[in-house]
Amino acid sequence: MDYNSCLPCGKALVKVGRDTVEIPCFYLFALLSNDSSSMVTSILMDGDFLNYDFDLHKDAKYANQSEYGHGPYGEGSVRHRRMYTYPNPLNYKLSFFHLRHILVIKHHDLTALATRETNCTDLIIRDDKYQNSFHYVVIDNSVGHALRFDQLPVRRDIFLSCKNRQPRERAASMLQLPE
């Protein structure tokens, strides 16, 4: 999924008056029905699930630059913008997200949110490249019964195919006209 030049993250900086304030950031992913009349899947996800490195997020904001005076007449400009792609939780291979309306939050945030009606359905463990593990829970209140935390199905490496991607040579697209 393309994030254009804005790297996803679980925090964001916003201006409040003269102050710059760090706030939590969540992402809403939605899948519409074929006729676009209803939302068949929705995922409200803690941004740290995609990227927890706030410094990397901030660095990405300043990595873009523009170049002016481009071209033979000097009237063009080039926007040097990075394009970030991160996993898409709406991927069809993630069937446990499909056709559900869920919240994905950090396990340690669950106590602040939890009520007796909170239905946790999955535990997702995200392992980073530094051997750290981060635990997230999936909450789906449409499920009729809550499971105890130690009974939750554990999912790991849900984006393994993204980790296993290899660089490939890009080729310019060229219009081909019939002879």
Identify the notable features of this structure and list them briefly.
single chain, 9% helix, mainly beta, globular, two-stranded antiparallel ribbon, 179 residues
Structure description:
This protein has helices at residues 54-61, 110-113, 160-163, and strands at residues 11-16, 19-24, 26-32, 39-46, 65-70, 76-80, 101-106, 120-127, 133-139, 154-156. The protein has 179 residues and is mainly beta. It has one domain (11-163). The strands form three sheets. Strands 3-4-7-9-8-10 form a six-stranded mixed sheet, with no helix packed on it. A hairpin with a 6-residue loop joins strand 3 and strand 4. It is globular. The chain starts with 10 loop residues before the first strand and ends in a 16-residue tail after the last helix. 12% of the residues are buried. The model has no long low-confidence stretch (mean pLDDT 90).
Quick rundown:
With 179 residues, this protein is mainly β.
Write down the secondary-structure element order.
EEEEHEEEHEEEH
How far apart lie the N and C ends? Answer: 38 Å
What overall form do the CA principal axes indicate? globular
The largest pleated sheet is described as: 6 strands, mixed
Structural class by SSE content = mainly beta
Please state the average pLDDT score: 90
Strand content: 25-35%
Helix proportion of residues, in percent?
Answer: under 10%
Number of helices: 3
Low-confidence stretches: none
Total count of domains: 1
The value of Rg in angstroms is 21 Å
Strands of the widest sheet, in order across it, are 3-4-7-9-8-10
